């Protein structure tokens, strides 16, 4: 169940980051509410996941997967560029996430 909670936390983390960008400094009410829902949901679900997972595994996966998802959806929604250096860095993050999941034994 911890991995399901962690996956939900990642989704909320992505919603938070994209909402924060779209809120333009909390000047757009709808995007501001989405941002707040994202941050609360992310914290709630990461805390549920960390009841079982080591913080040294759960937190890096949450932030790493959230970062990659944010960049991908930022490109799709906000037309941000994905360059070769960004792709190389994404692959490093994804490798770290896969390594932590694999080596955690959970």
Automatic annotation (TrEMBL):
Question: Which UniProt keywords are listed?
Answer: Cell membrane, Membrane, Transmembrane, Transmembrane helix, Transport
Protein location: Cell membrane
Where is it predominantly found?
membrane
Membrane topology qualifier: Multi-pass membrane protein
| Pfam families cross-referenced by the UniProt entry | Multi_Drug_Res
User: Which regions span the lipid bilayer?
Assistant: 32-50, 57-78, 84-103
Question: PANTHER family annotated for this entry?
Answer: GUANIDINIUM EXPORTER, SMR FAMILY PROTON-DEPENDENT DRUG EFFLUX TRANSPORTER SUGE
**In which family does this protein belong, per the annotation?**
Belongs to the drug/metabolite transporter (DMT) superfamily. Small multidrug resistance (SMR) (TC 2.A.7.1) family.
Q: What is this protein called?
A: Multidrug efflux SMR transporter
Source taxonomy lineage? Bacteria, Bacillati, Actinomycetota, Actinomycetes, Kitasatosporales
């Amino acid at each position: 169940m911890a991995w399901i909670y962690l996956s939900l936390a990642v989704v909320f983390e992505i919603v938070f980051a994209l909402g924060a960008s779209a809120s333009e400094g909390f000047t757009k009410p709808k995007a501001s509410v989405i941002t707040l829902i994202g941050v609360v949901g992310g914290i709630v679900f990461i805390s549920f996941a960390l009841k079982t997972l080591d913080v040294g595994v759960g937190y890096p996966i949450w932030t790493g997967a959230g970062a990659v998802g944010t960049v991908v959806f930022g490109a799709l929604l906000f037309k941000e560029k994905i360059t070769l250096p960004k792709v190389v860095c994404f692959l490093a993050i994804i490798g770290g996430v896969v390594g932590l999941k694999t080596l955690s034994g959970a």
